[in-house]
Amino acid sequence: MLIDSHAHLDNERYAEDRAAMLSRAYEAGVGTVLSIGIGEEAAGMGRALRVCREFNGQAGMPRLYASAGVYPHSTAEIDGGILAQLDGLLCEPEVIACGEIGLDYYHEGAPRDVQRRGLIAQLEIAAVRRRPILIHCRPTADGANGNMDAWDDLFLLLDEHWKGTGLGGIMHCFGGGLEQAQRSVDLGFLISFAGNLTYPKAQGLREVAAQLPLDSMLVETDAPWLAPAPNRGKRNEPALVAQTAQFLAELCDMDAEEIASATTKNFFRLFHLQSAVGN
Predict the structure, then answer these.
(1) pTM of the predicted model as reported, rounded to 2 decimal places
(2) pLDDT tens, residue by residue, 224-246
(3) Candidates 2.60.120.560, 3.20.20.140, 3.90.1150.10, 3.40.350.10; correct CATH number of 2-270?
């Protein structure tokens, strides 16, 4: 069985067919999905947990886990109430990760200093609650011409505020280079590849994936976005993680079953979970 390590199941684009979408995922061999709790605003971070509780235990559907966190663009909304809400959610047994959190210098959003302060505040809570983190990192111009500004700032913060916890996490929808991937692995992070790995202009990303050890990789959809080719531009959903896994297997000259087994083991090792079997 496969694991979709990052899907926004609470997104409104699934409002009409969420149950059917999850059934399709299970039929496609997806046994587990991590439902990302950032909402459309910081205060909505609990919706992913509600989706988990609505569907867990139903036959023919994946096992769902949730995360909770404040997305970089929403960090200006952080106050005492938001941090208390995050702390409470990270105490729930289904909420196994803090995220997605991080830095985004590509889009106009919260000022960079606000993003950095918001990230530090969330790292502190995740450390106390012993939850791995899900990192979103996007530099100015996606690192074009060697610009890795968000990555540089991210590693400074992780070295100071996270490395010592030993908790690690996931570099979600990885978009850095080999140096950033290696530094991430050294910090205890898994590198997660989404559907953009299949896009024609992603040759640099494919070169990174081909050089990573198998025990450092995950696959994800980032659904409802980033559907793999040839579904690019359409609504993504967890069933399509199988296409990304197949593409990654061919890239690494492996069987699809080997990629599925390895990425499943990696996920459950990171989160100290006992079984990768769906309902």
Answers:
(1) 0.96
(2) 999 999 899 999 999 999 999 99
(3) 3.20.20.140
